[in-house]
Amino acid sequence: MKREMAAPCALVTGAGQGIGRGIALALAGAGFDIAANDIAADPGNVEKGLYEVKTRVEGLGRRCLPLQGDIAERDDHARMIAAAVETFGGIDCLVNNAGVAPRVRTDMLEVGEESYDRLQRINARGPFFLTQAVANRMIEQQRAGGRPAAPSIVFITSISARVSSPARAEYCISKASLSMAARLFAHRLAEFDIPVFEVQPGIIATDMTAAVKGKYDDLIAGGLLPQARWGTPEDIGRAVAALAGGAFGYSTGQVIEVGGGFGIPRL
Ligand code: NAP
Predict the structure, then answer these.
(1) Farthest-apart Cα atoms in the chain, separation
(2) Distance of CA 18 from the midpoint of ligand 1 (Å)
(3) Nearest-atom index, ligand 1, CA of 72
(4) What is the pLDDT of residues 73-107, one digit of tens each?
(5) Which of 102, 129, 208, 233 lies at a 20 to 30 A Cα distance from 143?
(6) DSSP for 114-148, written as a single string
(7) pLDDT at 5
(8) Ligand 1 and 161: CB distance under 6 A
């Protein structure tokens, strides 16, 4: 009888809802087992959060390991990586998706240290050190061989990595920092054949943007986007699954906007 090959494993941060959930389900649909991280994990709730995602991933015929952890905490990184390796034998794809917006949008002339530091810790510093730890694991795996898929790393930044919004400067700065981290890891990991990509979502319908829905409805109706609709977590999931699938293995360091044409210079 033919022995079934183990599935590759993707570690997706912030996978309990929104874009991370969309990425986890798209990767499961593409054949990945999922190590699904989020800041909260309630096994009693299968309606929303990591255990809803687990049910959906298993419905697609793949395994899912819910991993509660704070991506800003290095101790949590070590624990989550160990658990994913124990369950799946290794990590073949890392998607740095978890991130936060400022609790309150504040003019940059007034923004305080607490919000600035919070966004740097969660959006930039945490993913940097998580990627460092996973990359070292991937290098070991490359040397040992025998993994079911080529490795890859995807950073979910934002169009805010390059577009100025003075009412949430600390968010833009944290995403610009993460964008440079993606470029640096792409450079450093090229010799190990670990491609690194950056995906910049545009305006995506999730809990994060729910509070500013009216503002973006008006901007989209007013012509902000050539493709005049909100983006969805599925739009981002499809893009990440394409990158993780290996078709872009010789394109390390590329930045892909998934934003309905937001970035097209127009007259
Ligand atoms: P979301 O709906 O708020 O989902 C983010 C998830 O990450 C939530 O489950 C959140 O938990 C979790 N999380 C927050 N802090 C965490 C931490 N320290 N450790 C682990 N998990 C944590 O946001 P989203 O819209 O899906 O955004 C996902 C990513 O895309 C973010 O990096 C965001 O900056 C980026 N992005 C979003 C948009 C957009 O339009 N939505 C556009 C560009 C970029 P809690 O809910 O408990 O905080």
Answers:
(1) 68
(2) 7
(3) 18
(4) 999 999 999 999 999 999 999 999 999 999 999 99
(5) 129
(6) HHHHHHIIIIIIHHHHHHHHHHHHHHHHHHH---S
(7) 65
(8) no
The pLDDT value recorded for residue 15 is 99
Tens digits of residue pLDDT in 189-204: 999 999 999 999 999 9
> How far apart are the CA of 166 and the centre of ligand 1, in A?
20
Which atom of ligand 1 has the smallest separation from the CA of 159? Answer: 43
CATH of range 9-258; options 3.90.1150.10, 3.40.50.1950, 3.30.200.20, 3.40.50.720 = 3.40.50.720
- At 190, list the tokens: 């090229």
Active site residues: 171
Which residues sit opposite 197 in a β-bridge?
154
How many C-beta atoms surround the C-beta of residue 4 within 10 A?
A: 6
154 CA distance to ligand 1 middle (Å): 15
- Residue 59: pLDDT band (50, 70, 90) is very high
Tokens of 253: 């360091």
Backbone angles phi, psi at 56, to 5 degrees: -70, -40
| 171: Cβ contacts below 8 Å, ≥ 6 apart | 101, 102, 119, 123, 158, 160, 165
For range 168-178, the mean pLDDT? 98
259 pocket-lining for ligand 1 (C-beta < 6 Å): no
**Which atom belonging to ligand 1 lies closest to the Cα atom of 96?**
32
Lowest mean pLDDT, pick from 3-17, 40-54, 154-168, 193-207: 3-17
